[in-house]
Design goal:
The protein is of the alpha+beta class. The chain has nine helices and eleven strands.
């Protein structure tokens, strides 16, 4: 069995989603990140790519960059650009790219499952990249990048996701590349229990993307 728990997500105010949202930090160059940040004082890239805001001689893994990112995250929370959900929840997350549509559930995976090999890996990781992600998590007290996990087909999870998707999404963002991102919040106690039980019926989860983030998070759990 695997363990997936609900949590209180830190999310942008609905009216600020387009201002805050950005592509993952590692799919762009420093100069591209600077262009994306321009004119967006509340872009999350100011937290995930602090080197794009700082002087050229400062690297993304310099302590000054971690400190700047922490200050920016604190500011976004203080100014209520980012707000915590009131209740621990799961989040149905759907991406649509042209005709392709994929959905999953966002929750807190277990570091114990990682160490016990119930979260399966298929790539080696680089210590330097692990160290960078670990320093970021410890500095910010937050996980900024999700780990993309897959699992064997489960009818209960599929039907629950489909039942929520009959209603309009709680959050909708269409990125500059045309990919749509939709979120439905699961906070009813009965459905929270269903999700947790459905995942407990699975033997394993498999990392599709995010081996360094997963390894760093597991190391943080033992630090």
């Amino acid at each position: 069995m695997v363990n997936l728990l609900p949590f209180k997500a830190l999310k942008p105010k609905l009216e600020l989603v387009d201002e805050v949202a950005a592509a993952p930090y590692d799919v762009m160059s420093r100069s591209e990140a600077r262009e994306m940040i321009a004119g967006k004082a509340d872009s999350i890239l100011r937290v995930t790519r602090p080197d794009a805001v700082l002087d050229d001689q400062i690297s993304i893994d310099d302590q000054e960059a971690y400190d700047f990112a922490q200050q920016e995250l604190s500011r976004l929370i203080r100014e209520t650009v980012l707000i915590y959900d009131e209740k621990p929840s799961y989040y149905i997350y759907t991406q649509q790219m042209g005709e392709h549509r994929q959905s999953g559930i966002v929750g807190l995976a277990s570091a114990d499952d990682y160490w016990a090999d119930r979260i399966k890996k298929h790539e080696f990781t680089l210590p330097r990249k692990e160290d960078d992600r670990m320093k970021q998590v410890l500095s910010l007290g937050a996980h900024l990048g999700p780990v993309f996990l897959t699992h064997q087909s489960h009818d209960g999870l599929r039907k629950l996701i489909q039942s929520y998707q009959k209603a309009p999404a709680d959050v909708l963002h269409i990125a500059d590349d045309g990919i749509s991102h939709e979120i439905w919040v699961i906070h009813q106690s009965d459905d929270l229990q269903k999700v947790q039980q459905h995942f407990a019926e699975l033997d394993a989860l498999y990392i599709a993307d995010g081996h360094h983030r997963a390894a760093a998070a597991a190391r943080v759990s033992r630090s």
